[in-house]
Amino acid sequence: MRIRLRPLVAATGALALSLVSGCAQGGAAGSSANTVTYWLWDANQLPAYQACAKGFEKENPGLKVKITQLGWSDYWTKLTAGFIAGTQPDVFTDHIQNFGQFADLKVLEPLDDLGIKNSDYQPGLAANWIGKDGHRYGAPKDWDTVALFYNGKMAKDAGLTAEQLGDLSWNPKDGGTFEKAIAHLTIDKKGKRGDEPGFDKNNVRVYGLATGGGGFGDGQTQWSNFAASAGWSYLDKPRWGTEYQYDSETFQSVVKWYFGLAAKGYMPPLSDYNIQSNQQNTQVAAGKAATAFDGAWMISTYAGFKGRDIKTALTPVGPTGKRATMMNGLADSVTKASKNKAGAKKWVAYLASDECQSVVGRYGVVFPATPAGTEAAVAAYRKKGIDVSAFTEPVADKKHSRTFSYPIASYSADMTALMAPAMEDIYGNGKPVSSLDQTNDQINLILSQ
């Protein structure tokens, strides 16, 4: 499961220094020569990794894996505190958003000796975990893309077919067929649709598109697919870029159009969004929104909405003639202060193997990073009656789809801290998109340090 990360401690100042020095003082909590401690946050994946641990222990007599599952918020708080106090685990599930900061703070153990090859995993996943220094700090674990979830009954009532919703296009001038579909799915409290005369945008009963808030600086399940399908990129380089590009005319035109959907009444206002209690999936489950962009980690959640007949469609084709979706991927990392590095690396190598990833895939909760693991997951979803092609097709079809990574750069926490209020000001307060010029300058000034 991926939930919006809150910015961790910025990689500057006294706390960063104490974090580095703290690592050198302690060892992983509960670790020993015979035990490897492993942290993850997703309770849904816990059974799969418990099964992998049994396989690992059978292959490595004398080594035990102690798995700790923590809730999302507690996970990052305790991990950061653990780096400072010396109570961090031997191995932990890492997120690309925090990778740059952890690498800068030198709290990760290089994994070059594991012999991980880019070709053994889905495209781009392994390369994302190479630091600026050229060393590997993460072994690919799984991946996800974004698609459009929609209420099948609402679509049918609106006269929209699965074929139509799977072949939408958009542009920042008039929104294309995507905006027309979203408008038609929107219904006010008197029963008027968003594209009908007399529609009351201030009294909406069902919004065509759920809101995911401002999207911080990555917009993974908000505006990222639109920006990328318009030809925009977060940074001047795919990885470890030196300049963000939020001052781009293309990006700002996308943001203006996207948040403009709320001004037209087709998407809820920012005030309706709550990161804890009213995310996209909550709005769809409650029948308050007909569609939502969301990630593959939410497949089982949407499938479990009773009486909603949830289906999925590809993201719309943009001005470049291609669809786009962020392809994010988690990894397993070894902590620098681990007192059982040999055992930790053996465990990470096993986690990254076809043997473990095929086991994880058979649980049908996430797409593992290896092709074999992915195939096992697709088969598991199929047995549950769930079609996941809207998530897998963009990865296979490079001719018609663009996949891109979360922005990988130093000081990602600082970027998020600056972009979050900037995007919310545009969305919720009507601030002009040109205000992103100044925000972009501030971020790039920090990045240049």
Could you describe the 3D structure shown?
The chain is an alpha/beta fold and 449 residues long. Helices cover 38% and strands 13% of the residues. The chain has two domains: 35-144 and 328-391, 3-Layer(aba) Sandwich (D-Maltodextrin-Binding Protein, domain 2); 145-327 and 406-448, 3-Layer(aba) Sandwich (D-Maltodextrin-Binding Protein, domain 2). The strands form four sheets. It has a five-stranded mixed β-sheet with strand order 2-1-3-12-4. It has a five-stranded mixed β-sheet with strand order 7-8-9-6-10. The longest helix is centred in the last third of the chain and has 18 residues, at 412-429. It is globular, with a radius of gyration of 22 Å. Residues 1-27 have low confidence and may be disordered.
Topology of helices and strands:
Layout lengths: L12 H11 L11 E6 L5 H14 L4 E6 L2 H14 L5 E4 L1 H9 L34 E2 L1 E2 L2 E6 H6 L4 H4 L10 H10 L1 E2 L15 E6 L14 H6 L19 H15 L16 H6 L3 E7 L3 H5 L6 E4 L9 E4 L4 E4 L6 H11 L2 H9 L4 E2 L2 H13 L5 H8 L4 E4 L7 H18 L6 H12 L2
Parallel strand pairs: 1-2, 1-3, 8-9, 11-14
Antiparallel strand pairs: 3-12, 4-12, 5-13, 6-9, 6-10, 7-8
Helix pairs in contact: 1-3, 2-13, 13-14, 16-17
